[in-house]
Design a protein that fits this description.
By secondary structure, the protein is α+β, with helices and mostly antiparallel strands. Helices cover 31% and strands 20% of the residues. The protein has an eight-stranded antiparallel β-sheet with strand order 1-2-3-4-8-7-6-5, covered by helices on one side. The longest helix is centred in the first third of the chain and has 34 residues.
Length: 240
C-alpha cells in the first residue's frame, strides 16, 4: 500500500512540473509575439512618397531641390516644409550644417546641362540611359528625374543612411519584414537594373518592395541580409 501511495505522489509531482513547463513556454511565446511592433512610420511616410530621413518627397520640384542643397533656396525643415522668418533664424542659429551650406555658394545656380557637372553639395550628372534621366547626389541621398520633363519633378529617391528607424548595416531582412504589417508585393533577388542607382551593384542582394497608394517603397539587403539602401518612387511616373 505504501508503495502505491508513493507512486501516486510521484506521479502528481511529475504532472505538476509538466504543467508548469507548458505554462512557462506559453508565456515565453506570448512575450516573443509582443516584442514585434509594427513600424507605423512606414505607411505614414511612404503613402506620401517620402522616406522619413529625406528632406524632399517624390514629385518635389527639381529647382527647389537644387537650390536647397546649394544654399540658395528658402530654409525648410526636415520634412520639406518652408520655415517662417523666425523659424529660419532659429534654424540657422542652431544648425552648423545650414551655415556651412550657405557659405559654399551665395549665387543662384540653375540646373546645368546634361554633360555639365557642378562641384557643390549637390552634383548633377546624366546616366547612360539615352539621356532619359538625371541623377543628383546630395550627401547620402540620390534624386532622379527625367531629363526630357524636369517639370514632373523628382521621380525616384535612393537613400543610403538609416531610415524608418532601421539601421544601415545592422537591420536585417527579417527585422524589416517582421515589422511591416503589409505583405511585400515583391520579395526577390535584386537585379542590376533594380540597383541602377549604384556604381557597382552588389551580388546576391535581396529586395523587399511594398506599395502604398501610388508609391513603391524598396529595401535592399546585402548577402548577409543587412540593409544597405532604401528607395521610393511613383509607380505612375517611374518607368525605368
Amino acid at each position: 500500500m505504501k508503495r502505491i501511495v508513493s507512486l501516486l505522489l510521484v506521479s502528481l509531482i511529475v504532472l505538476s512540473f509538466a504543467s508548469c513547463g507548458v505554462k512557462q513556454q506559453n508565456e515565453v511565446s506570448s512575450q516573443t509575439v509582443s516584442i514585434v511592433e509594427y513600424n507605423k512610420l512606414v505607411p505614414e511616410y511612404a503613402s506620401k512618397g517620402m522616406i522619413d530621413t529625406v528632406i524632399f518627397p517624390v514629385g518635389a520640384s527639381v529647382d527647389e531641390v537644387v537650390e536647397h542643397y546649394n544654399g540658395d533656396g528658402p530654409a525648410i525643415d526636415e520634412h520639406g516644409a518652408h520655415l517662417s522668418s523666425s523659424e529660419e533664424s532659429s534654424e540657422v542659429d542652431t544648425s552648423s550644417e545650414t551655415d556651412s551650406i550657405a557659405e559654399i555658394s551665395s549665387e543662384a545656380v540653375s540646373i546645368p546641362e546634361l554633360d555639365d557637372e557642378i562641384v557643390y553639395n549637390l552634383t548633377i550628372r546624366g546616366l547612360d540611359t539615352g539621356d532619359r534621366i538625371i541623377k543628383m547626389y546630395a550627401y547620402d541621398t540620390r534624386y532622379f528625374y527625367y531629363n526630357a520633363s524636369p517639370m514632373s519633378g523628382i521621380a525616384y529617391i535612393a537613400q543610403s543612411i538609416d531610415s524608418f528607424g532601421y539601421m544601415i548595416g545592422h537591420s536585417t531582412y527579417a527585422d524589416i519584414k517582421g515589422t511591416i504589417e503589409a505583405q511585400p508585393v515583391s520579395d526577390k533577388i535584386a537585379s542590376d537594373d533594380d540597383m541602377f542607382f549604384m556604381v557597382e551593384p552588389l551580388v546576391d542582394s535581396k529586395m523587399l518592395s511594398y506599395q502604398y497608394g501610388d508609391y513603391m517603397l524598396n529595401f535592399f539587403f546585402d548577402s548577409n541580409d543587412k540593409l544597405f539602401y532604401t528607395t521610393i518612387y511613383n509607380v505612375h511616373v517611374w518607368t525605368e
